[in-house]
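Instructor's aside before we start: the two examples that follow are unrelated to each other. I chose them only because their records fit on one page, so don't look for a connection. First example below.
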Amino acid sequence: MIIDGYNLAHALGLLDGFGGDELEQARDDLCGMLAMYKKAKAHKITVVFDAQYAPEYETRNDTIKGIRIKYSPHGRLADSVIKNMARKERERAIVVSSDRDVAETVQASGAAAVSSQEFQSRLVEAIYFAQEADVPRSKERRIDTRKKGPGFRSKKKRRKTKAKAQKL
């Protein structure tokens, strides 16, 4: 999974109090949430943040709680880094970004694109179930898997994208 960091943080409302210290706190909060998601889903996750205007010596790559953090090089946007990563990974990549240009480029390279809003709901759900799994329960919750609604088959490309998104 390749995630547009500030795009998802904005969708989650982590950038509401935008400022220097708050920006770092928002990145840490996002990485904490993604670490809990990774615990539930076991995906390889890379988060790409813009560092376009940061001094060259500050550009770095980190790993926090199993989440790979990548900052865009000086003078480049995170969008271009995400597009390049998606081109290399092709069908194996799932990109989370609400940026339409990024989504179209990623899909053209064969990767799946998921909007930040759609991923947000999956993220919250996975975190909830991960926390629920830590608490002992007396009753097992049953999930109904029966098909609902009329049967209809969507286009192959849409089915493949949906199948990748289902793995989230």
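Example two begins here.
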Amino acid sequence: MLSPESLRQSRIETVAHSLREDIGSGDITAALIPADRVTDGRVITREDAVIAGTQWVDEVFHQVDPSVRLNWQVKDGDKVNANQVLFTIAGNARSLLTGERAALNWLQSMSGVATNCHRYAQLVAHTSVKLLDTRKTLPGLRLAEKYAVTCGGCFNHRIGLWDAFLIKENHIAACGSIAKAVETAHRIAPGRPVEVETESLDELRQALDAGADIIMLDEFSLDDMRTAVGLAKGSSKLEASGGINANTLVAVAETGVDYISIGALTKDIKAIDLSMRLNPIT
């Protein structure tokens, strides 16, 4: 589960890295402008979107120049329309120009994730299913992307390999059986969720008998998903997974599974088109 402190630390570190790779030894183009010049402006969205990443933008300008002033017109999770003003900004002209690209990169990318998740969540709003992200995130940006998922109305699966068990085919083979793997998981980390990936109704029954907390139905047919829901009867949560997209999502949700995990929530994301418009520099 994402914690405010883990997000804060990740935000500071990843923003610092994004500025280092962009600014390097110094912004030579901004240096063309006299050091004492000031300006103000606004950032708009050129398309409809769901916003995520406002604190990352704040962090960019805080690290570039703490005297820069931002006034947000929106908050994370808000739905916005094309040409809407997201925030106004004022301060040293060099600072605004130096921080512009890094700030917009964070906001447009995270809002792209949130917008995509909102689209998926709306498709199944008539059901009780929860849509889960996966570990298919950009290296180094996992917490930011998983935070953006929640802004779009979807939910986080495990954050990494440390916070929950996901027992797959190779783990089962190494342990000897589903029952042995689940038993060992409960013993070595009591209280941690134990999920087992299954590929057939027979494996589902084994996982149910073993007392798995969550059972993943990997590429089950719709009929087999419905059968699985009847077999589980609420004793274990069921998660559908494997090749699910916007075209197949509703039918899967309507089988009655508890969760659907979708790599596409954070993969192949189209960034939102944003623009910073500065007033004349004085």
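The chain has a mean pLDDT of 96.
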